[in-house]
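Notebook entry, structure prediction.
Reason for the run: the old model in the group folder had no record of what sequence produced it. Starting over properly, with the input documented here first.
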Amino acid sequence: MNLIENLNKIFDSRIRLGIMSALMVNAEVNFNELKELLNITDGNLASHLKTLEESGYVKIQKGFIGRKTNTTYSVTKAGEKAFKTHLTALEKMIGSVK
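New structure, fully documented this time:
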């Protein structure tokens, strides 16, 4: 049995793991909330979000609150499925350690 075959390389990063975890339990989260939650820089967060978006796991909505831009993120169906598969694989791997 290959314990790591269902682990997803995209989620190897602790930041992407954090982003996905936040998005799985919230309908949407805006950029500043994610930045504050993960305690990372704008550039760092933006690059990880771009990777998740390009993978089809995160959807971006740009809008305005008054005159200020507001960018929110949500998990896609594909992202939800991939993340759940990854978590299940992690649980199996952890459970196999004797």
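Summary: The helical segments are 14-24, 31-38, 42-54, 77-96.
The old model has been moved to the deprecated folder.
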